[in-house]
Structures are given as C-alpha cells and as structure tokens.
Amino acid sequence: MGGIIDKITDFIKEMLQGWVLNNLDTMFSDVNDKVGTIAGEVSKTPSTWNSGIFSMIRTLSENVVVPIAGMIISFVLIYELITMVIDKNNMHDFDTSLFFRFLFKACIAVMLLSKTFDIVMAVFDVGSHVVTQAASSISGSTSLDVQATLTTMFNNQIDTMGIGELIGLGMETMVISLCMKIMSVLITVILYGRMIEIYLYVSVAPIPAATVTNREWGTIGTNYLKGLVALAFQGFFIMVCVAIYAVLVASVAVAGNLHSALWSVAAYTVILCFSLFKTGSLSKSIFNAH
C-alpha cells in the first residue's frame, strides 16, 4: 500500500515539476525579447523607424504646416521691421544699415525654414549615434538569459521540494509570468509612444522654425529645439536603464533561494518599466524643455 502511495506521490511531483519548469522556460521570454531589441529600436531615426509614417508626416508638413509657417514668418518679419523702425525714434534717427540687418535676418529666417527637416534629422542623427555608442559599450548585456539561471537553481533544489512547495512555486511562476507579459506590453507602449511623440514633433517643425530669428517670438523655436534634443537623448537614458537592469538581474545567478530569485527578477523588471516611463520627463528636465 505504501508503494502505491509513493508512486502516486512521485507522479504528482513529476507533473508539478514539469509545470514549474515549463513556466520558468516561458516566463521571461517576452521581456527578454523586448529588452534585447530596445537598443535597435531607440537608435533608429524617424526616417528609418518607419519610412511609410515618415513619408506621410513629411507630406503633411510640407502641404499643410509649411504654408502656415510661411504666414507666421511673414508676420514675424513685418513685426521685426516695425520694431526696428520704432526703436529708432520713429525714423528720426534713420540708419540705412537697418535695412541691411533686416534683410540679413530675413534671409536667415527663410533659410532656416527651408532647411527645417534637415536640421530636425541632424538632431536625431546625433541622438542615434549616441545611443549606438552606448549600446556597443554594454553589448551582450541587453539580452538576459534569466530562464537558464532559474531553471538550474530549480533543478538543484528539486529533490528537496514537496508537493505543497511545488504547488506554491507553480502559482508563483504563473503570477510572475503574467506580470512579465504585462511588463513586455508596457515596454512596447513606451518605445512606440516615444516614436509617435517624435513624429508629432517633426510634423509641426516649420512653425517653431519660423519664429527663431525674432527676439520676442524666438522662445517658441528655442523651446521646440530643446524638446527635440530631449526626445533624441531620451534613447540614451533608456539604454542606461537597460544596462542597470542587466547588472541587477545578473545578481540572480548568485542567489541561493529560488523564491527570492523569482521575485527579485520580477521587481527588477517593474523597476525597469518605471524607469523607462521616467526617461521622458528626466530628459526634458535636463534640457529645460517645457
């Protein structure tokens, strides 16, 4: 009778062990895949991330926004000329160099407006270069083989686990697996949200560019440029977060308890998502973009 009970117990334990091992094998696959592709995603410029969207945004900008920017720059230049005349005591202190300065400023304003897209792409090219250099510095650390470490720990402790502990561990792995899938979706939302925000910024680029040369209105263009640089360098801060995450998760390999290792990795992944959410506001605060 005791032999039958032992066989039933062994059978149940084998089923539970297979269940736990299967959960461990699939638990971090989504997050691993997403974290491993972050470097490639954030290093792309608007033109290379999705050429179809970029082409549409550029067409909208040229056909809809540029005419509005043309009206704005006309108003700004006229306002600039009136201001120059008034500043010279209503032309009582007339100086012919005034019109040369106005013509020079107008030429610069028109040139900036005509080269707006080139300037915007140059900003993101610099940001892409910074991210690529950061990615090469932490190469090999962004894709994390957490399953192998946890599976090895489980195999080492498997003989000492009873049915109750295996059931508890199975429930833990199910909950953490669900959390990891949610974290993977959140990482996707962060990466795609950043690119959509970039495309929105790029679409209206000619309007703030039309105000740059004026003293009073120039703050619009200056703030826009700061926001553009902040978005470009947000990719660098994302790479720093991923590098920190890789170092934290690497410590799981030396953990002695499987339960604490599981929850530690889950906590680190939650911290990663929270940090990624904060990179946008951090970058804007550093570059004083508002």
Automatic annotation (TrEMBL):
Transmembrane segments: 64-86, 98-117, 174-193, 228-254, 260-277
Species name: Sporofaciens musculi
The organism's place on the tree of life at top rank: Bacteria
Alphabetical UniProt keywords: Membrane, Transmembrane, Transmembrane helix
Pfam family, one: TrbL_2
Protein's UniProt name: TrbL/VirB6 plasmid conjugal transfer protein
InterPro entries from the UniProt entry: TrbL_Firmicutes
